[in-house]
Specification:
It is built from 14 helices and twelve strands. By secondary structure, it is an alpha/beta fold. 45% of the residues lie in helices and 14% in strands.
C-alpha cells in the first residue's frame, strides 16, 4: 500500500541498504521530526509517551545507533560516566560495576572505570585531572571514596553531579543505601538463636561506612540476645580475603575461642573458613561463619556461606539512574533505599554443647 511508510523511501530495508541508518530515517519511520527523535534519544522531557514509544520502536526496528560525536554536539554532553573505586573486594566491585553498566547501556551512556588509591595524598588532584581530560558528565563513587570529605567538597565546587553507593548519612545526596545496621543485627540474631554466646566480629576497613554500620548491628544483636560485648572478640580486617584469614588466626588463638564468627563481608568470611579448616576444625560443627553482601564467592566456597544479601548489582544500577536523572535535570536525582535478605546456608549451625 502506498500509504504504508514501510514501503516508502525510508523503509527499514531501504535505509539499511543505502548505508548507515540516519536520524532522518528514524524520524520518517516514526512520523515525527528529527528534533523529537533527538529529544527521545537524550531522555529529555516534553515528549508524550505514545510518541516516545513510537520513536523507540523505530530505533529498534532500524537498528539505529547515534554517532557519539553528534550526541555530544546536540546535547553539550560527553555521554560518559566514570566509576571511581578503591575496594579490596573484587567480587563486590564486579557486582556494582555490572549494575552501573546496565544503567549506562539503557540510557546510551558510556562507562569509564577509574581505579584510585583511597589514602593517596593527591587523590583530589587525580580526580580533577580525570574530569578535565575526559569531560565526564558525572561520577559514581563506591566505598570508601563515597565518604571522602575532601573529594566530595571539590566535586561540589566543580558542580559535577555524583552518586554515592552506601554513603554515610551526611553525604547522602544522590545514590543508594541499605539499612546495614538492621541487617547485621538480624544475622547476629540468627547466631544467637542457634545457641551461640561467643560470637566474634571481623570488622571492615575503618574508612568504609559499612564497617561502622555492621559493627553497630553486631552490638545490637548481642544486646538483644542478652550477651555482653567482649572486646577480644572484635578484630579489625580490611574487607579482603587475607585480612579475614589473619583475623581468624588471632581469634582461634584466644584462650576461649569463639563458636561463631560474623565477618563484615563475604571475602573475609571466606578467609575465615580457610583458617578454621587449616587447623583441623569443621564449619559449622566447630565454628559457624557468616558474612555480608552475598557476592558470588558466598555460593562458590564450601560450605556455602550464610550471609546478608544486599543487591549490589541493583544498587549500582539504581545509583547510576539517579545520577543520570541529575545530569539531565538538576535537582531531580535522589537517594534510593533498597531492601536486604538473609541467606541462610550451611556455614552456620547449632553450637556444639
Amino acid at each position: 500500500m502506498s500509504g504504508d511508510r514501510r514501503n516508502g523511501p525510508h523503509a527499514p530495508d531501504a535505509a539499511r541498504s543505502a548505508g548507515r541508518v540516519r536520524i532522518q530515517d528514524v524520524a520518517a519511520q516514526a512520523g515525527v521530526s528529527m528534533k523529537t527523535v533527538s529529544r527521545v534519544l537524550n531522555q529529555e522531557p516534553n515528549v508524550s509517551e505514545p510518541v516516545r514509544l513510537r520513536v523507540e520502536a523505530a530505533v529498534q526496528e532500524l537498528r539505529y545507533r547515534p554517532l557519539p560525536s553528534a550526541r555530544m554536539l546536540a546535547g553539550n554532553r560527553s555521554y560518559l560516566v566514570a566509576m571511581l573505586f578503591d575496594n579490596p573486594s573484587s567480587n563486590y566491585l564486579m557486582e556494582i560495576e555490572m549494575g552501573v553498566l546496565d544503567a549506562c547501556q539503557a540510557r546510551h551512556y558510556n562507562l569509564m572505570l577509574a581505579p584510585l588509591e583511597y589514602d593517596a595524598a593527591d587523590i583530589v588532584a587525580k580526580v580533577e585531572a580525570l574530569v578535565a581530560q575526559s569531560q565526564v558528565d558525572g561520577l559514581v563513587l563506591t566505598p570508601p571514596l563515597t565518604d571522602d570529605a575532601a573529594l566530595l567538597q571539590r566535586l561540589r565546587e566543580l558542580d559535577l553531579p555524583h552518586a554515592g553507593i552506601s554513603a554515610r548519612e551526611p553525604n547522602r545526596r544522590i545514590g543508594v543505601v541499605v539499612d546495614e545496621v538492621q541487617a547485621a543485627s538480624e544475622i547476629v540474631d540468627h547466631l544467637v538463636a542457634l545457641g551461640h554466646t561467643r560470637i566474634a566480629h571481623i570488622q571492615g576497613h575503618p574508612a568504609h561506612g559499612g564497617s561502622s554500620w555492621r559493627m553497630a548491628g553486631y552490638q545490637q544483636g548481642l544486646q538483644r540476645g542478652g550477651l555482653a560485648a567482649d572486646p577480644a572478640l572484635v578484630v579489625e580486617g580490611a574487607f579482603s580475603y587475607d585480612s579475614g584469614y589473619a583475623a581468624t588466626v588471632r581469634l582461634l588463638a584466644l584462650p576461649e575461642p569463639p563458636t561463631a564468627i560474623f565477618a563484615a563481608n563475604d571475602d573475609m568470611a571466606a578467609g575465615a573458613i580457610c583458617a578454621i579448616c587449616e587447623r583441623g576444625l569443621s564449619v559449622p560443627a566447630d565454628i559457624s561463619v557468616c558474612g555480608f553482601d552475598d557476592t558470588p564467592i558466598s555460593r562458590q566456597i564450601y560450605p556455602a556461606l550464610t550471609t546478608v544479601r544486599q543487591p549490589s548489582r541493583e544498587m549500582g544500577r539504581l545509583a547510576t539512574l539517579e545520577l543520570l536523572k541529575e545530569i539531565r535535570e538538576r535537582g531531580t536525582g535522589g537517594v534510593v533505599e533498597v531492601g536486604y535478605a538473609l541467606q541462610l546456608r550451611r556455614s552456620t549451625g547449632p553450637v556444639r554443647r
